[in-house]
Structures are given as C-alpha cells and as structure tokens.
Amino acid sequence: MIRFEDVGKVFPDGTTAVDGLSFEVGEGELVTLVGPSGCGKTTTMMMVNRLIEPTSGRILVGGEDVSGMDPVGLRRRMGYVIQQVGLFPHRTVLDNTATVPVLLGWKRARARARAAELLDLVGLDPKTYGPRYPAQLSGGQRQRVGVARALAADPPVLLMDEPFGAVDPLVRERLQNEFLTLQAAVRKTVLLVTHDLEEAVRLGDRIAVYGEGRVEQYDTPGAVLGTPATPYVARFVGADRGLKRLSVTAIEPDDLEEPPTARLDEPAGTAAARLGALGARWAVVLNGAGELHGWVAADALRIAGEHGTVGDLARRMDAWVPVGSPLKQAFSEMLQHDAGWVAVLDGARFLGVLTPAKLHEALRRSVDADARGVGRGQVPFDSVADA
Question: Does residue 386 fall inside a structural domain?
Fold first, then answer.
C-alpha cells in the first residue's frame, strides 16, 4: 500500500533528515516508526501526505506516485492524527469529527451520521459527547475524537504522529488497547510514529528502527527484540530486550503442561486416591463441560476422605489468561497472585497450565524460530535445551 523507493530529504540548511529510505508497508498493516528525536521518522511520515516534499526518490501509495497527486486531495484521502489532536475549539465534537466528509462534499446529514457512528466506535456516546466542545473533554477523550475524525471518510491510510503521547500512562495504555481493537475491526494501513519502544513493540505488525536518517532494521517486533540486525539496534532495544519480548510472544497450546484434573462432582476420596497414585499435590477442578472451576489440594481431599465432593473443597482460580495472550500477561499473573503457574483458557474451556519453565521455553523457542525464519512449532524442544 505504501512504498518508499530510495527516498531522501535534505533541508535548505544542508541537514539530511532522511537518506536512502526504502521499505514497504502492506495493505492493512500497522507499522511503527521508532527512534530518537531528530532521526527522521516524523519527516518520513509527513512526506507521505506531502506536508514535506522529498528531495529524492519516490513514495507510492496504492501504486501511484504521490508527487503526481494534488496535495490537498491526497491529504483528504488519508487520516492524520497528531499528539496535540488539533481539534477546532469553536466546533462541537460531532462537527469536528465530520470535518473531512464535509470537505469532500458529503451532505451534512450523512457526514454527521458518519461522525456519530465513529464516535460510538471509539467509545464516546455521540448523544453525550457530540454536542460538547473540545475544552469540555479530557485529554484521552480528545485523542479518541482525533482518531474518529481521522477515520470519518474511511481512508485507506492512517498517519499517526505520537498519537498517545500527551496523556498519562494509564490512559495511554487504555487508548493503545482500544486502538488495537479498533484496528482489528477496520484494518487500515497505518504508519505510527513513536519514540517509545514499548509502544512500538506493542502496536506494530512491523517496526522500522531509525538511526540517523536511516532505517537500521525493518522487521517484526519479535525479530527486532530477539535478533537485532546491527549493534545500534541492539543498543537501542536495550539489554532487557528479552523481557520486552515477553509482550510480543503469544501463548500457544504447545507451550502448556497438562496437570492432573478432578471433576467437580467427583467424590473427594476417589480424587485423593488418584492424585496419591500420581504423586500430585494439587489438581485443576473442571465441570462436566471441561470448563475451569478452580483448583483443589490433595491434602484437603485426603482429609475429607469419603465425605463430600471435589466441588466442596475447590478453591477459586485467580491466576488465568486466555490462550493467545502475551507471555508478559501470564508472567504478571504469576507475580500478582504469587502463583507457580497460570491456567490457560480457550473461552471458558481449560487447555492446560503455563509454568515458569514452560514460559522460558516458549520465549527461547520464539527467538530460535525468528533466527531460523521458521514457525515456532518447527523448533524442536531439544534445540532450546541445547542453546
């Protein structure tokens, strides 16, 4: 959808902002541009909609060279979100959101209906927030309006410059989560500029790591963290890149152990005898549909004997995550609940447990898979043990 072909930008004072930039952003892909201040990432983004003109090379959008397009028409075909949001203070939230459709010649009723739809999509009730003015909103709410406005004309490309940088960390994390959910639904082609590596890793399908006006590595978040392409990238992502990688490595069914289980209606004595034969100290408690109910200690079952059922002795299971969650979430659950493992669910159905050893193994398999250019399932377990 967006292709940079040997693009360069030299400003009149002789400063080279971008040099020999070549990479491609696929349709529906979210690419984050990350690097220190002054490295050229914002210049890169602004050349896409011709707010800055390149000195050399070509930028193509949808196969068409942007240099041959009318700049105003080009910008109206793209969504644009900036850190300061840039809402018109004298216009209501609804009218702010409808700005681009109105400029494109939509009838007012249609533009406002589209604006209301987008406000609802970003979690702002149009009946409540539509009549308000920007000054009556919180910083996080203004950011949501900015995203809604950028999406109002249904543009194929969305350009975002530090879109979540002006809010506090808690609001920022919530906005990031909401944007990922939104992107999963609308699948826009997105270029997002950030100076925050964790944000780049969390949001991006791929990351462009900038040095001085050049992209040092363009790859998936996992590959950037696991196999930095240059010493510069290794320094930039930091010595704790293994911990950062936890946030981009998903839990897969093959990562799990299958612990002893007990049925909710099973007699306590029967379950105790079975766990004793296995030498197990606890069991996961499931209902008849295989759904997680809790866990039970073998000692409690043995003391109860033939009196009561497993369900009478079961304890609540607080440490659990959905399959596909990042390893970081599972690790956080372990720490928060002082647990030696977490249950992993598919909906309500119990799949298995993730232990610290399995978490470490999953991380190492992921790094090994990226280094070999294969899927994680193609990396044998013994290759990790031997690493």
Answer: no
176 Cβ partners below 8 Å, 6+ apart? 164, 199, 202, 203
Length of the chain: 387
Rounded CA-CA distance 213/365 in Å is 33
Structural domain range at position 56: 2-248
R_g over Cα of the chain: 26
CB atoms within 10 A of CB 56: 14
Clarify whether residues 73 and 100 are in a common domain.
Answer: yes
Most confident of 125-134, 140-149, 361-370: 125-134
pTM of the full predicted structure?
Answer: 0.75
Q: What is the CATH number of the domain that holds 242?
A: 3.40.50.300
Total structural domains within the chain: 2
d(CA 90, CA 109): 20
Q: Which residues pair with 295 in a beta bridge?
A: 284, 315
Q: Please write the tens of the pLDDT for every residue from 50-107.
A: 999 999 999 999 999 999 999 988 988 888 887 766 788 899 999 999 988 888 888 9
